[in-house]
């Protein structure tokens, strides 16, 4: 489990095509400290497993399903990525509960800079819109953010200077894809209420 608080901006240093999968090598001095084979690291919000670790780099295999359902397939050598290690038991939950399981992808539609923050508008797949509410939580490229406006096919978030400086959202431009993970609590509530309604109808 993750919190959506990005620990560092990493970099893709190699991409190997394995046919029905890809192997990424990524550099991240902070997240690789003490890393071991089998550990989990979130890359742009996608939970990946460390295959190899040497120095400040690690490799991770990404299967076709993940490449198709996320924006990782668009990464190339030199791409910057948001990196986060799993939350330690007993640590503070600085963002919200993030599983590292991408629900879909959106696209940066618009950026509106102001003096001290920036509003970013992101497209929202129709099947995810019901889980996104104003002042609710959403994960964008692994970043825990608060929804400012929730539209039928988009949402907006307000980014403070720290987020702009330390994450990929500081450089994403209109047209760029982003990974989205909605609040898992909303999905569980929907399922529970649906099961209850079906039970009442029997």
Report on the architecture of this protein.
14% of the residues lie in helices and 40% in strands. It has 202 residues and is mainly β. The radius of gyration is 17 Å and the shape is globular.
What structural keywords apply?
202 residues; 13 strands; repeat; ATP_synth_asu-like_sf; transferase; Riboflavin synthase; riboflavin synthase activity
* C-alpha termini separation: 37 Å
Largest sheet: 7 strands, antiparallel
Mean pLDDT reading: 91
Low-pLDDT runs: none
Instruction: Give the radius of gyration.
Output: 17 Å
Helix content: 10-25%
SSE inventory with pairings:
Elements (H helix, E strand, L loop, with lengths): L7 E10 L3 E7 L12 E4 L2 E4 L2 E3 L2 E7 H6 L10 E5 L19 E10 L4 E6 L13 E4 L2 E8 L3 E6 L1 H6 L10 E6 L1 H17 L2
Antiparallel strand pairs: 1-2, 1-7, 2-6, 3-4, 3-7, 5-6, 8-9, 8-13, 9-12, 10-11, 10-13, 11-12
Subunit structure: Homotrimer.
Function: Catalyzes the dismutation of two molecules of 6,7-dimethyl-8-ribityllumazine, resulting in the formation of riboflavin and 5-amino-6-(D-ribitylamino)uracil.
EC number: 2.5.1.9
Task: Please summarize what this structure is.
Keywords: Repeat, Riboflavin biosynthesis, Transferase. The protein is mainly beta and 202 residues long.
């Amino acid at each position: 489990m993750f919190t959506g608080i990005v620990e560092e901006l990493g970099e893709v240093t190699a991409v190997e095509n394995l046919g029905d999968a890809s192997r990424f090598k990524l550099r991240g001095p902070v997240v690789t400290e003490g890393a071991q084979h089998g550990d989990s690291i979130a890359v742009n919000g996608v939970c990946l497993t460390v295959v190899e670790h040497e120095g400040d780099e690690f490799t991770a295999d990404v299967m076709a399903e993940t490449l198709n359902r996320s924006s990782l397939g668009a990464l190339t050598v030199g791409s910057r990525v948001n990196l986060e290690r799993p939350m330690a038991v007993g640590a503070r939950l600085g963002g919200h509960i993030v599983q590292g399981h991408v629900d879909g992808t959106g696209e940066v539609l618009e950026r509106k800079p102001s003096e001290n923050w920036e509003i970013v508008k992101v497209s929202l797949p129709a099947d995810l819109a019901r889980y996104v509410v104003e002042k609710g939580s959403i994960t964008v490229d692994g970043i825990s953010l608060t929804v400012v406006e929730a539209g039928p096919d988009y949402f907006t978030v307000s980014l403070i200077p720290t987020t702009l400086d330390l994450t990929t959202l500081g450089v994403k431009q209109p047209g760029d894809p982003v990974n989205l993970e909605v609040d898992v609590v909303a999905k569980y509530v929907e399922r529970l209420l649906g099961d209850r309604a079906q039970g009442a109808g029997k």
